[in-house]
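Title: Prediction job returns without error message
Component: structure pipeline
Severity: low
Priority: P3
Assignee: unassigned

Description:
Job completed but the reporter wants confirmation the result is attached to the right record. Sequence as submitted:
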Amino acid sequence: MLYGQPHLACHECDALLTRVALPPGKKLVCPRCNCTLRKPARDPVNRGMALSLTSLTLMVPAFTMPIMTFNMLGLDTVDTMIKGVLHLFQAGFWWMALLVLFCSILAPTLESALVLSICLLVRARRYGGLLILLLKLQARVRRWAMLEVYMLGILVAYVKMIDSGQVHMGVGMICFSGMMLATTLNTMLFDTHSIWEQVGRYRGGIHEVRPR
């Protein structure tokens, strides 16, 4: 069994180091290349649950309520994230619509739901195959969640349209900003390494007591 060995290797310079217990608030640094090997987050499970619930709660109004209202010659045009995807489909840009739908709506929603499910399983001390599957899936989905790119598109559109008429930010923009902040913080602070260590200790204990 490889888990539980007293040494670990630096992922930058391959130095073989002695594994030590890391107290909260401290980080493990390689003495040869000064690379940060480990920096555990404080209370990653409860923090992940709070940020995931916040993000999922804000997603419904962020996706369905008006992000901005454009007024030109007395005519109002109201845009939401869902309408933006539908407009791309109607204009024939189906590939772009699918990309926006997945990266800006489906992937962030799925990532927050996966983090919440992982935290619930860890709190219930269920370190079986389902938790391992969700951890692997969350690592892959995280690379596709690109809310900041959509936010950049909104800002560019705002700058271009502000000279042509009146542009008003809606409630959806506030919810979208809060959702993006919660999702970004969750991506930065959610510590999967500590969860993998708990899974390793659990599965290592199972292997040690397995009858021959």
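Comment from assignee: result matches the submitted record. Residues 206-212 have pLDDT under 50 and may be disordered.
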